[in-house]
Amino acid sequence: MNGADLASLICAGAFVVLVAVIVIVLVKLAKLVDVASATIRETGDSLVPLLDELTEATASTNKQLEKIDVITDSVVETTTNLSNLISTLTDTIGGPLQRVSEIIRGVSGLLGKKK
């Protein structure tokens, strides 16, 4: 066996070691891809019911918001009616009460002068 044969045996041995390392890495990579695929599949399977529940919750929330809109509209209408009522009462009762107070001031002024 000469030096060239020895060098070719060393190269062949190194190549076999390199191929073995690459095979090990590829096997581990294949396991990683399998685990990732299973995780993605499980996530997809659990995501559909979650999205269904989210859709139901959103629909329920929209129904409640519609009810709140009706209540808010009723409160606005009631407030407007109450404001109009107060304005009408102020106009109706305020004028005569002001005249009565002027008469009372006038009478009390006259009574105060007589003494």
Summarize the structure.
The protein has 115 residues and is an all-alpha fold. It has one helix and no strands. It starts with a helix and ends with a helix.
Keywords:
115 residues; mainly alpha; 97% helix; 0% strand; rod-shaped
Could you characterize the architecture of this molecule?
- With 115 residues, this protein is mainly α.
- 97% of the residues lie in helices and 0% in strands.
- It is built from one helix and no strands.
- The protein is rod-shaped, with a radius of gyration of 47 Å.
Give the secondary structure arrangement, pairings included.
Elements: H1 3-114
Number of helices: 1
Outline the biggest β-sheet. Answer: none
Mean pLDDT: 90
Structural class, from secondary structure content?
mainly alpha
Beta-strand percentage? under 5%
The geometry reads as: rod-shaped
How helix-rich are the residues, as a percent range?
A: over 70%
Low-confidence residue ranges: none
**Ends: how far apart?**
152 Å
Radius of gyration: 47 Å
